[in-house]
Structures are given as structure tokens and as C-alpha cells.
Design brief:
This protein has about 130 residues and is an all-alpha fold. The chain has a domain at about 45-115. Helices cover about 70% and strands about 0% of the residues. The chain has helices at about 10-25, 30-40, 45-60, 65-70, 75-85, 90-100, 105-115, 125-129. Helix 3 (about 45-60) crosses helix 5 (about 75-85) and helix 4 (about 65-70) packs across helix 5 (about 75-85). The longest helix is centred in the middle third of the chain and has 18 residues, at about 45-60. The chain is extended and about 70 Å long.
């Protein structure tokens, strides 16, 4: 968990540096953004962000919070908080991007299903023959 200084920034400074960070991230292509995030964030922070993004993706797809908890090893309270924010209309840019292009999870699902029998009742019947 990242640690912050106990000394709070004033609201104007906080807003200004947040805006600068957003602007800097928005101006980068995917490769440059990856390098920048690697330079700015620790391995733990990158993993934390990746897990939260994956949880948002799975919640958007209707996956059950318990299954997300089991798969990503995130606390149930984190998943529920992300779900509540999603339900209130948060993460609009993330969900908009998901609807516009194929995601990593689509690719993983295709790889996992390659060569597998079709889903549904009787899908393993061929083994009994």
C-alpha cells in the first residue's frame, strides 16, 4: 500500500499537480505510457492498478464479486467499492474504451477455449464413446 505524507497539500496545489499528471499521461502513446508508468510506479503499485482495472472489466461484464475475489486475490471490500462506483456511473472512460475495442480478457478467453469442446449440456459426451 502506498504511503502518503501526513502533511496535506492545499486544494489548489493538489488540483494543479493532478491536472499536470493527467495531461502528461494523455500525451503519450501506449509504449511511452508503459515506460512512464514503469518509471513512476513501483512493481506493487503497477500490480495494484492492474488488478483494479481487471476487476472493473470483470464487474462490467457481470462477473460475480466472489469469483473476482478468488481470481485476482483482491479483497471483497475493494471489489464492492469498485462495483459501487461503477453502479453510480464511475469509470466511464474505462467502460467506454472496453466497448470500443477488444480487450486482453477477450484474447485470453479465446486462447482458453481453443480446442475445447463446446459449452453446454453433454459437452464431454465424446469421452464416453
Amino acid at each position: 500500500m502506498p504511503h502518503l505524507s501526513e502533511a496535506d497539500l492545499d486544494a489548489a496545489t493538489h488540483k494543479r499537480i493532478t491536472r499536470q499528471l493527467s495531461g502528461m499521461l494523455a500525451d503519450k502513446n501506449a509504449y511511452a505510457l508503459s515506460l512512464l508508468l514503469h518509471d513512476l510506479l513501483t512493481k506493487t503499485e503497477r500490480l495494484m492498478l492492474a488488478k483494479r482495472l481487471a476487476a472493473i472489466v470483470l464487474l462490467e461484464r457481470g462477473e460475480q464479486p466472489y469469483h473476482i475475489h478468488q481470481a485476482l486475490k483482491l479483497s471483497q471490500s475493494t471489489i464492492l467499492r469498485l462495483g459501487n462506483t461503477l453502479d453510480r456511473g464511475g469509470y466511464q472512460e474505462i467502460t467506454k474504451a472496453l466497448r470500443q475495442k477488444s480487450t486482453l480478457l477477450d484474447d485470453i478467453e479465446k486462447i482458453l477455449q481453443a480446442g475445447m469442446p463446446p459449452r453446454g449440456k453433454g459437452r464431454w459426451r465424446f469421452l464416453r464413446k
